[in-house]
Structure formats: structure tokens, C-alpha cells
Amino acid sequence: MKEERKIGLLIKQLNTIHEHKINNMLRSYGLTMSQVRVLRYLIRKEKENVLVNQRNIEDHMNISNPTLTGILNRLEAKQLIRRVASKEDARIRYIRLNDTVAGFEEELRNKFDEMDETLLVDLSEREKDTLFELLNKLLVSSRQGKTKEEVYDKKDLKRSKRI
After folding, report:
1. Which of 36, 45, 141, 156 is geometrically suited to a Cys-Cys bond with 151, CB 3.0 to 4.6 A?
2. What is the value of pTM for the model shown?
3. Helices (H), the chain
């Protein structure tokens, strides 16, 4: 009997393995994946010249205030970020990157690129393109909460059943 395919389970298993490998790599930097996600968000917003407060990060990452406070406290203790009071409203504190992150950013990006390449090493370029296309389609439909009937037209339904 053919084993039943569960795409959600496969994605979860792949994510767990990949995240474990990433966390092992990050351990040498004394960081966690959650801390790196915050840093990457701050880096992106800084390049856009956008000031970021704690609430912005909470909303973007969909995490609670106490969880983010812990992450920010640890990043501040490592001197990677600082909290700066707003000039207009002292109740608002912006989260800013310290200069030490600048060189560190490229090194981390290279490490993440290496990790992605090891994940995709056995795939051809065509398979990689197909994988990205399908994963993006899954992501869009999942975010919109659509059923497969709403996402695919009639001729594509045959293909969706292969998953």
C-alpha cells in the first residue's frame, strides 16, 4: 500500500531539520534564530530609513511582547542593538542597530546562503525553480486561507492531487 502523503508534515519535518542545522551554526555566534530574525528585520528597515519600535517588530514577527522583550534584552546585552527614546515622545523607544552588526550582517548572509545551498544540493536548476514556484503558491494560498478549489482552476486540480 502506498504511504499517504502529508505535505504539511513534510514541510514541518524539513523545517525542523533545517532549523536545527541553522541553530547549530548560529550557536558559534552566540545567537538564536529568533534573534537573527529580529536583526534581519532591523537591518532591512534601517536600509529603508524606517525607525522601528518594539510594537513594529511584534506585529511583523507575530510574537508576544514578553517574548520579544527577552530577545531584545539578550541582543542589547550582546551590544548588537540599543533602545533609543523618541525625540517627539519619550514613551516611544526605537530599536537601533549598533555598528558592530554591519560587518556581521554579510558574514551571516553568506552562512545562510551556504545553508540554503546544502538544502538544495541534490536538485537541478529546473527542480529548484519548480520548488520555489510551488512553495510560493502554497504560501500565498495559505495566507489567504483559500481551499484548493479557489486557488486552482479545473485543469490544475489534477496536478494538486499529486501532492
Report:
1. 141
2. 0.70
3. 7-27, 33-47, 54-61, 65-77, 101-120, 125-144, 148-151, 154-160
